[in-house]
Design brief:
Elements (H helix, E strand, L loop, with lengths): L10 H8 L17 E3 L2 E3 L7 E3 L6 E5 L4 E5 L7 E6 L6 H5 L3 E10 L5 E6 L4 E6 L3 E10 L8 E6 L5 E11 L18 E4 L9 E3 L12 H7 L38 E2 L11 E2 L54 E5 L2
C-alpha cells in the first residue's frame, strides 16, 4: 500500500512523479501543536494542517498512540463528518498546479462496512472514491487540475454516525502516480518563528510578526490550525497573528523558578494567560534599594546651649532621576516572521 501505481503507469510517468514533492503537509500525523496535557493524560486534538468538521455529538479527532494513526470518531446525528487539507497553500501554486495531473492516496482502517469517501477537488472538477467495506483500505485518486481552479483540496467524508476511522498516511503529488516517500512541499514546520537581520521584507512562505495583527483568511488554513486562536480571532473566527513589534523573546518557563511571575503573565491578544507559550510579561525592575551615605553628627550651633541636630527625619532623600525611557540591554532590531507554507 505504498504507491498508487496502476498497471498502465509508464516508466516516464513514474520517474516524473518521483521528481515532485508531497503536497500534503503532516501526512503521517506527527505534528499536534494544540495537544493538551492534563492529569498525565494527553488530548491531541486536530493534527496540524488539517481541518476537522463534525456538528454532531461525540465527534472527535486525535492521535491513536497504539497504532500511530490519526483517528476520527464520527458524531451522532445526520451531519457529515469531514477531514480535509488545502493542498494549494504555498506561494504561486497557480503556476505549479493548474493544468497538471495530481495523484493522491489515503490509507486508513474503518471500523465496519460503512461508506467512506475520499475526494480530490479543485472546486471545479473532482475525483471521488467511495468504499463501503471495513478493515484496511487504500483510496487512490487522480485529477487533472482545472486551469481555472480556485484551490486544491483532499477531503475525507463519512455520513454515518459513530464510525471509527484510523488514517495512517495521506500523500499527493503532481503526476499520475502518488509516491509515499517524497519530501513535502513545506520545507520546515508551519508555525515556526524565524528572524532576519538584513531585510524588512518577509520571504513568500512567511508572514511578518512586526506589524499589527493579521487575520488569517483563505489560503492560511494550515497556519490557522497551528495558532488556533492563541492570539485572538477575527470576526470570521480565524486566528490573528501576534504583534511582536518591539518585544524581546523569553523561553517558556514551564514550571521552573526562573521566571517567578510566570503565573501572572497576560494574554497577547487572545485568552491564553499564565505560564504558557505566547503570553506577555511587562517590564519590571527587581526590587532593590540605593544606599545614600551621609552623616548627621555635625553641630549646627555652639555656646552654652550646646549643639543641636537640625535633620528632619520625615524627609526622604532621593538620588535624582537617571536613565532613559525604558530598561533594555544592548540590542539589534530584527524582522520576526512566522512560517505558513
Amino acid at each position: 500500500m505504498e504507491n498508487s501505481v496502476s498497471g498502465n503507469t509508464s516508466l516516464d510517468e513514474l520517474l516524473y512523479a518521483m521528481q515532485q514533492r508531497n503536497l500534503v503537509y503532516n501526512g503521517d500525523f506527527r505534528y499536534y501543536s494544540n495537544q493538551v496535557l492534563a492529569g498525565g493524560y494527553i488530548t491531541y486534538n486536530c493534527p496540524d494542517g488539517w481541518v476537522f468538521t463534525n456538528a454532531g455529538s461525540f465527534g472527535m479527532v486525535g492521535f491513536d498512540t497504539a497504532t500511530n494513526t490519526c483517528y476520527i470518531n464520527t458524531g451522532g446525528g445526520d451531519k457529515t463528518t469531514t477531514f480535509q487539507q488545502a493542498l494549494h497553500e504555498f506561494p504561486r501554486w497557480q503556476q505549479t498546479l493548474r493544468g497538471n495531473y495530481v495523484a493522491a492516496s489515503v490509507i486508513m482502517t474503518v471500523s465496519g462496512n460503512y461508506p467512506v469517501s475520499v475526494t480530490l477537488t479543485d472546486n471545479t472538477d473532482a475525483d471521488t472514491v467511495t468504499k463501503s467495506t471495513g478493515g484496511d483500505l487504500q483510496f487512490d485518486l487522480l485529477l487533472k487540475v482545472n486551469p481555472n481552479a480556485s484551490g486544491l483540496f483532499l477531503v475525507v467524508e463519512c455520513k454515518t454516525p459513530n464510525v471509527r476511522i484510523n488514517i495512517s498516511q495521506a500523500y499527493a503529488n503532481i503526476g499520475k502516480v502518488a509516491i509515499q516517500s517524497l519530501p513535502t512541499m513545506v520545507q520546515g514546520i508551519i508555525g515556526e518563528r524565524r528572524q532576519y537581520v538584513a531585510t524588512e521584507t518577509p520571504p513568500a512562505e512567511e508572514l511578518s510578526l512586526c506589524q499589527p495583527p493579521v487575520a488569517l483568511g483563505d489560503g492560511y488554513s494550515r497556519l490557522n490550525s497551528v495558532i488556533n486562536g492563541r492570539f485572538g480571532t477575527s470576526g470570521s473566527g480565524m486566528s490573528l497573528t501576534p504583534d511582536m513589534r518591539g518585544y524581546f523573546s523569553r523561553s517558556w518557563n514551564n514550571g521552573a523558578a526562573t521566571d517567578p511571575d510566570a503565573g501572572q503573565r497576560t494574554a497577547l491578544g487572545g485568552t491564553v494567560t499564565g505560564d504558557h507559550v505566547g503570553t506577555l510579561e511587562q517590564d519590571m525592575f527587581l526590587k532593590h534599594n540605593h544606599p545614600l551615605p551621609w552623616t548627621a553628627n555635625q553641630p549646627s550651633m555652639g555656646g552654652n546651649a550646646g549643639s543641636i541636630t537640625v535633620i528632619n527625619t520625615l524627609q526622604q532623600s532621593k538620588t535624582g532621576d537617571t536613565g532613559g525611557s525604558e530598561t533594555r540591554p544592548k540590542n539589534i532590531a530584527e524582522l520576526f516572521t512566522i512560517k505558513w507554507a
